[in-house]
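Structure tokens please, single chain.
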Amino acid sequence: MRINGISSMATRQILAALCKRFEEKTGASVSIEAMGGVDAARVVREGRATDVVILASDVMSRLEAEGFIVAGGVTGIARSLMGIAVRAGTPHPDISSADAVKRVVAAAPRVGYSTGPSGDHLLRLCEQWGLSEGDRLVKAPPGIPVASLVAQGKADLGFQQLSELMNVQGVEIVGPLPPEIEAVTVFAAGVAVASRQAEATRAFIDFLASRDGDDVRRAHGMDPC
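Here you go.
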């Protein structure tokens, strides 16, 4: 038996580890294709044959409402905080408060952000703060980690889920956003309507959401739901 899936890039490392555990436990084979969240939602809507879809919960809710995900079964598998990264070896700015982060963003020549939920949150913050976007905000192409822009010197600050900022050579994580402006993204899984093995896929999703994977989630910068 082979279970196929589509996920966003943010969960790829967690899923790689948990798929291996599931395979060892059940003997099933699992293949998850990771891509930018925008592209993932698009290919699901275009009718890509798959069994499981794993994306941010708000996107999953829309896909469920549109009839692409089996209704009533979308399940959260991980919670992710948003953080800030700088190029390795550069000073870490003060991000201890919302005002401090506002000053850091206002002073940075280039700020990298993603096409996903973390990027949307940064744009909302900039609007609230009255900061002009201009050319200072550098959007990472779909599927490209913001941290890579920072490592390459294309951005001075990088905003994205902590799991995406971790373990990227050439960058250092300053920390998560302060609580008053933090954005928590819940990643969720659901059975695709196109799946021909819904029962097996449901068992896989239950495994992803179980306590068996809590250590893997935390190791990659996320928390259990």
